[in-house]
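#onboarding

Welcome to the new folks! Below is a worked example of what a typical request in this channel looks like: someone posts a single protein sequence, and someone else replies with the predicted structure as tokens. Don't worry about understanding the tokens yet, we'll cover that in week two.

Example request:
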Amino acid sequence: MNQLPILLLLLAGAAVAQSQPGGERKLRQRTISLPAAGEDVTVRIARGTLTTLTFDSNLGMKGVQLGGRESHFERVDENERLVSFKPKVDLVPGERLLLTVRFADGAAPSEVTFELIAAEGEADASVEVVRRTRSVEALQVELRELRAKYAALRDSSGDGGPEGMVLSGWLTQDIRVRRFDARVPPDNSSGLKVEDGVGYRTGKWALVAVRLRSQLGTRRWTLGEVKLSSVRGAPVKVLSVRMDRPQLAPGEEGLLLVRTEAPWWELGEELRLELKDKEGSGPLPLSGVVF
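Example response:
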């Protein structure tokens, strides 16, 4: 007899049975369909609340990567079609952790990344993930459509260079650029060295670019969680994070880009940027970030 349905019911029932003080937080069950273009792939989590994600396709070996696994969770369980976890701390407003799962069969979509955010009015107790695999023919049709959209965008935005940034409103006359020397604690154990940093700022957006080098004798480093805050501890909302390569091998250099909400902090005010490895090695805290 297949024990998986019974296990799922027990886990979901345990999550629903948990209560919050005064009944302030509700628990919900939901379904996410993949591919998730245009669909909400955030998962709301809360301290002491068990959240369970179930999948209709087998997950790959070592196919689960969870940011903040050691620092934020008291319990994490995985099997072929299930990931469940119970946070031991609450996320602060604006903080996001990434959960990436890879599927075993190699079909598209081969992986999916969920954003774990703080639960406000309700937390996700049970999330069913339905994966609709796509054939080669369907992927070819989608590729042709994307190429057509890209060609139309290129034609209307000056080939996507500086002309396109001006036409799209991203590059405005109030832009300010400033180089900064980020400070790293002398006892830092992340294995990374900061080569240089540059901040870009307009009235609508801000972007920080940090060039990192993985030192020799360390293991591969993969970006996981990113947090930005003022020196007073006020969180800055991070809108996107990108690197020019997925991992840094020992001795390799990479460029990290972090885009934020419209600046509310003072011009020239120092911020703190904290980077964490997906595999859970020591974080890289940077102070003196200015943009």
